[in-house]
């Protein structure tokens, strides 16, 4: 029950009506009997700065930040975690109230998207010393690529329809992670290149929106004959859960990681940043699947 002592968490985005985070986060808060509530906030781009200032004035304890604010919010925060800074996007803000609610407020930004994807994959296999191939070079790909490249892998290949964008992401990774001994390369978005990269990959992550509702009949980025039994296949699209790629992966007897797991674990990580308390994964997963209608 909400009372005078209830603390506030939430998510800011534009649009926001579609968000599944309140169902997942409130289930976690309730199961631990924490006097917190997690709310959706519809914030237009021209209102972002006021919204962050308002959050401080209201004593809000933590926020998720979603499209289209993940990059613009960086300039409004006091401190940015080093990985979020390399990625150039923040999806989680921690508000630290010095000397209680009336004192100074310190805002720190994190990016838990890549962590979410990595943890989902590591439920099936460790990425250490492995080869990972990523399709797509947009916002989600960037967060995932930086996290994965920082996880003791051996090789990372990125393919994208717009080759220049993939090249620029690979340059960015090489510049920021020069001290790591990883083979990072870019390949063309062509069937032969995908076939070559996947033949010796251990993990394949599709970060394109191919197959996402309502385009559920889109042809999968890779058909079963390009996949193999030892390959972990993760499609980060989570509506529907059984995307065209996941169906092809099942035909190939590959190891499947559904897209909702990334959403789950990015939320788990945010929860733990705000509350310094282990998140109740089972309850949050059940609520997320319920909200997704699965
Ligand atoms: N599971 C999760 O928690 C989670 C989190 C974030 C995002 N997502 C999902 O991930 C997807 C991508 O999100 P984003 O923010 O990265 O989007 P984005 O920044 O717009 O990037 C989309 C990427 O997909 C490529 N692409 C788009 N349509 C394509 C097509 N028809 N054929 C081949 N490539 C195509 C784009 O290639 P070009 O550069 O050539 O245009 C670009 O590299 C969305 O479906 C989103 O819902 C899931």
UniProtKB/TrEMBL annotation:
<dbReference type="InterPro" id="IPR046346">
    <property type="entry name" value="Aminoacid_DH-like_N_sf"/>
</dbReference>
<feature type="domain" description="Shikimate dehydrogenase substrate binding N-terminal">
    <location>
        <begin position="11"/>
        <end position="93"/>
    </location>
</feature>
<keyword id="KW-0057">Aromatic amino acid biosynthesis</keyword>
<dbReference type="Pfam" id="PF08501">
    <property type="entry name" value="Shikimate_dh_N"/>
</dbReference>
<keyword id="KW-0560">Oxidoreductase</keyword>
<feature type="binding site">
    <location>
        <begin position="136"/>
        <end position="140"/>
    </location>
    <ligand>
        <name>NADP(+)</name>
    </ligand>
</feature>
<dbReference type="InterPro" id="IPR036291">
    <property type="entry name" value="NAD(P)-bd_dom_sf"/>
</dbReference>
<dbReference type="Pfam" id="PF01488">
    <property type="entry name" value="Shikimate_DH"/>
</dbReference>
<protein>
    <recommendedName>
        <fullName>Shikimate dehydrogenase (NADP(+))</fullName>
        <ecNumber>1.1.1.25</ecNumber>
    </recommendedName>
</protein>
<dbReference type="GO" id="GO:0008652">
    <property type="term" value="P:amino acid biosynthetic process"/>
</dbReference>
<feature type="binding site">
    <location>
        <position position="91"/>
    </location>
    <ligand>
        <name>shikimate</name>
    </ligand>
</feature>
<dbReference type="InterPro" id="IPR013708">
    <property type="entry name" value="Shikimate_DH-bd_N"/>
</dbReference>
<feature type="coiled-coil region">
    <location>
        <begin position="156"/>
        <end position="183"/>
    </location>
</feature>
<dbReference type="InterPro" id="IPR022893">
    <property type="entry name" value="Shikimate_DH_fam"/>
</dbReference>
<feature type="binding site">
    <location>
        <position position="66"/>
    </location>
    <ligand>
        <name>shikimate</name>
    </ligand>
</feature>
<dbReference type="GO" id="GO:0019632">
    <property type="term" value="P:shikimate metabolic process"/>
</dbReference>
<keyword id="KW-0175">Coiled coil</keyword>
<comment type="similarity">
    <text>Belongs to the shikimate dehydrogenase family.</text>
</comment>
<comment type="pathway">
    <text>Metabolic intermediate biosynthesis; chorismate biosynthesis; chorismate from D-erythrose 4-phosphate and phosphoenolpyruvate: step 4/7.</text>
</comment>
<dbReference type="Pfam" id="PF18317">
    <property type="entry name" value="SDH_C"/>
</dbReference>
<feature type="domain" description="SDH C-terminal">
    <location>
        <begin position="259"/>
        <end position="289"/>
    </location>
</feature>
<feature type="binding site">
    <location>
        <position position="266"/>
    </location>
    <ligand>
        <name>shikimate</name>
    </ligand>
</feature>
<feature type="binding site">
    <location>
        <position position="113"/>
    </location>
    <ligand>
        <name>shikimate</name>
    </ligand>
</feature>
<dbReference type="InterPro" id="IPR011342">
    <property type="entry name" value="Shikimate_DH"/>
</dbReference>
<comment type="function">
    <text>Involved in the biosynthesis of the chorismate, which leads to the biosynthesis of aromatic amino acids. Catalyzes the reversible NADPH linked reduction of 3-dehydroshikimate (DHSA) to yield shikimate (SA).</text>
</comment>
<dbReference type="InterPro" id="IPR041121">
    <property type="entry name" value="SDH_C"/>
</dbReference>
<dbReference type="InterPro" id="IPR006151">
    <property type="entry name" value="Shikm_DH/Glu-tRNA_Rdtase"/>
</dbReference>
<feature type="domain" description="Quinate/shikimate 5-dehydrogenase/glutamyl-tRNA reductase">
    <location>
        <begin position="125"/>
        <end position="207"/>
    </location>
</feature>
<feature type="binding site">
    <location>
        <position position="236"/>
    </location>
    <ligand>
        <name>NADP(+)</name>
    </ligand>
</feature>
<dbReference type="GO" id="GO:0050661">
    <property type="term" value="F:NADP binding"/>
</dbReference>
<keyword id="KW-0521">NADP</keyword>
<feature type="active site" description="Proton acceptor">
    <location>
        <position position="70"/>
    </location>
</feature>
<dbReference type="GO" id="GO:0004764">
    <property type="term" value="F:shikimate 3-dehydrogenase (NADP+) activity"/>
</dbReference>
<feature type="binding site">
    <location>
        <position position="259"/>
    </location>
    <ligand>
        <name>NADP(+)</name>
    </ligand>
</feature>
<keyword id="KW-0028">Amino-acid biosynthesis</keyword>
<dbReference type="GO" id="GO:0009073">
    <property type="term" value="P:aromatic amino acid family biosynthetic process"/>
</dbReference>
<feature type="binding site">
    <location>
        <position position="238"/>
    </location>
    <ligand>
        <name>shikimate</name>
    </ligand>
</feature>
<feature type="binding site">
    <location>
        <begin position="19"/>
        <end position="21"/>
    </location>
    <ligand>
        <name>shikimate</name>
    </ligand>
</feature>
<comment type="subunit">
    <text>Homodimer.</text>
</comment>
<dbReference type="GO" id="GO:0009423">
    <property type="term" value="P:chorismate biosynthetic process"/>
</dbReference>
